[in-house]
Amino acid sequence: MEETAEMMNSNLKLNSRDRAVLMKTPFLNGLGSSSLVGMLSAMSVLSLASRTSIFREGEKPDAFYCVLSGYVRLYRLSHEGREADIQICGPGETFAECLLYGGDRYAHHAQAAENVTLARFDMQAVRDLADEQKDVARAVMTSLSRHLLNSMDCVANDRLFTAPQRVANYILARCPVDGGPASIRLPFQKSLLAGMLGLAPEALSRAFSTLRKTGVTVRGRAIQVVDVAALRDI
Amino acid sequence: MEETAEMMNSNLKLNSRDRAVLMKTPFLNGLGSSSLVGMLSAMSVLSLASRTSIFREGEKPDAFYCVLSGYVRLYRLSHEGREADIQICGPGETFAECLLYGGDRYAHHAQAAENVTLARFDMQAVRDLADEQKDVARAVMTSLSRHLLNSMDCVANDRLFTAPQRVANYILARCPVDGGPASIRLPFQKSLLAGMLGLAPEALSRAFSTLRKTGVTVRGRAIQVVDVAALRDI
DNA sequence: CGACTCTTTGAAGCGCGTCAATCGAGGTGG
DNA sequence: CCACCTCGATTGACGCGCTTCAAAGAGTCG
Q1: CA-CA distance, B73 to B118, in Å (whole number)?
Q2: Which residue ranges run through the membrane (chains A, B) (predicted)?
Q3: B135 & B61 share domain
Q4: CA of B31 to nearest chain A CA: how many angstroms apart?
Q5: A98 touching B, CB under 8 A?
Q6: Alpha-carbon Rg of chain B, whole angstroms?
Q7: Are residue A224 and residue A120 in the same domain, yes or no?
Q8: CB of A189 under 7 A from strand C?
Q9: Would you write out chain A's pLDDT as a tens digit for each of its 234 residues?
Q10: Which of A61, A160, B202, B205 has the fewest Cβ atoms surrounding its Cβ within 10 A?
């Protein structure tokens, strides 16, 4: 919790790391300078402590967000209070931008899964910008397309693969190499990964221990893979 | 199979029913007349027999589609050959339009689940149109947004609800009334509904028989609900 | 050291997939 | 018109995979 001091302030100016993340986003990276100015003036920065609610399902949407640091959890509740994660958003990822032209209510809850800093975009302002400048419209379309592909991927993964297979897929997707040994580090705690893969934390734990016999070693957030190629055969 | 003769022909002109479906699509319904002309000239109509492949995962995308009549199945294959449906597209629904600005390969297979007629849109032509005319860009954004919301809904449903609950949700979503008795008719065969809900056909069958004690009667494609309000409590 | 929180492990149960057999509806041909 | 064939839907039996609950282990901070 070394960020506690920063955490208390809202509407801070961007620090250089957050600024770099923001500019690499599909939303901003291809924009001309005038559009960029417009987007930045429709935007504000905010920092939230872990577990803070960002918006709730059913509320009127007035803004969408881009994660600058930390992770955000999008989830929905069942009638009995069980929660199911729909998506985990990390640095550079945008969420709720589908409401620019979609429904008139937030379709799920959003919560800070850690201490986070967010860029908040006013929806009406961005709609107006997109109406006037085509590079903004194009950025919106690119972001929506990526998002949609990810979401459909998620459905396919849930329906096709078992827990160990999904975990293997996750690891493989972040291994830089094609074969041989590799080691990666989880960017968040395991319970978040579990939700992201549509699993209970216990199921993730068991999936890891199943993968031990395929050469996967886990200690804390560090994951070691003996042979990436072997893992791909799962 | 009374449509066999029509089935053989490609690039037919639109009949009036298909034309009406097409115009109500988010893609075309808000367009100005010049954009509309552009879109129609980027489009061709084709009819396909049931089970015909429309495109395969991994192919280079050159077009996206809008269903005019019949149903289309989007699915992905596992390594062992099992298939999982990602989405079922009915009349008025568009698919693969996320590749306008998304990936450079089709992300899944598309197959005619029945005899279908489709509007085929040339991607590069639509990209060019969207670049020039903002109502086209807006139509693309609207379509993508809807699609994304549906897809996220699908993830949430899969993760939150059991088979009978998902079936109940499906029925409720197409019941015009809020309470009391209702009766609806499935627009396709049950195996398609099963895939749409992420179930094996047997599981759908069992879900229906579970719902019998909640006042749901099924005969063929006809579904009768004694009390819609009671069904909502599941 | 003790009080958290996160993770792991065990045990039990349920939901769903799979395989196989049966049933029913539609269509075909004798 | 009926026997037959095919395909979709149903039902039963079985097993696997995951959730749930409970408790213990591991890490982290005061």
Answers
A1: 13
A2: 27-49
A3: yes
A4: 14
A5: yes
A6: 19
A7: no
A8: yes
A9: 334 434 444 455 678 889 999 999 988 998 999 999 999 999 999 999 999 999 999 999 999 999 999 999 999 999 888 999 999 999 999 999 999 998 999 999 999 999 999 999 999 999 999 999 999 999 999 999 999 999 999 999 999 999 999 999 999 999 988 888 999 999 999 999 999 999 999 999 999 999 999 999 999 999 999 999 999 988
A10: B202
Does residue B97 sit in the same domain as residue B9?
yes
- CB atoms B141 and A140 under 8 Å: yes
Picking from B82, B145, B156, the nearest residue to A100 by CB comes out as: B145
Closest Cβ–Cβ partner in A102, A142, A160 for B76: A160
The pTM of the full predicted model, rounded to 2 decimals, is 0.92
Q: Say whether the CB atom of A201 is under 7 angstroms from strand C.
A: yes
- Whether the CB-CB separation of A71 and A188 falls below 8 Å is answered with yes
**Which 3 state secondary structure label does DSSP give A14?**
coil
**End-of-domain residue from the set A137, A160, A183:** A160
- Structural domain boundaries, residue A222: 163-232
The tally of domains found in chain B comes to 2
B149, B172: one domain: no
Which of A85, A98, A141 lies at the smallest CB-CB distance from B137? A141
- Residues shown for chain B: 234
Residues of A in contact with B140 (CB under 8 A): 141
